[in-house]
Fold Protease HtpX homolog.
Amino acid sequence: MAAARSHTRYTPDRGLTARMATTMFLIGLLYVVFVGVLMALMRGAWPIILLIAGGLFIVQFWFSDRIAAYSMGAREVTPQQAPELHGAVDRICALADMPKPRVAIADSDVPNAFATGRNQETALVCATTGLLRRLEPEELEGVLAHELSHVAHRDVAVMTIASFLGVLAGVMTRVWLWGGLGRSSRDSSTAIAMILIPLVSAVVYVISFLLTRVLSRYRELSADRAAALLTGRPSALAAALTKVDGEMARIPTRDLRKAEPFNAFFFTPAFSSKESLARLLSTHPTLEQRLDQLGRISAQLGR
């Protein structure tokens, strides 16, 4: 059946596949080490550790798309309610030969879009009202092609799983410090654990944070490249990027702050920085990097 297809006409990206595999391997290794350290330090609480770790993973993997959509205020819309948006998604899906995802709109003036879902069958693509007001039809199709490439390449699911370890590290630290695990024992081992667990959790969080940021920046360039090649209109995507980046400066800071936690899933970040350190920690490459790549693709297609 068509709904079971996993291959699409999006250009395969071996670099993205290799980076996702490497990130997942390192994250998995870090996860095993982290849980092992927690179980060694909290000997009597290992059932709670496994229960929390397993429960969080299930929630993160199976419900992340619904959580993200709910947090952004996304509401699913029918073709009758949003004919232009559905029409654009239909055209991209026909070009890519992939199942049509659920379509949603978020009532926000921040011009952006995102895709969620652990696979093509559970995918949801969402555009904000601010984006729909500002973009021309060809520009909107470029943005949607970018977002659907994340679904086709399955990097949305990888980013969801990869971000899980940072969430787990934070939760386990709070459980230990505020939940009173191990406080019934007043020996020296408990005192050592009280110091080591927050320290280990902080290290795990930093490593997982950096790994996901590196992958996130590459996957955005990969999505730009795949969208430009699929539609054959890199200039339309470049125009959308330039327009959205310029419009961000006109959005009130409080609205951008609300959207900032979802930067990793957005078409463009709510905040961007020119400083080298901030760029290393950013979820997205710079606008200049993205436009430069699209310019090269446009020249290649022209030849």
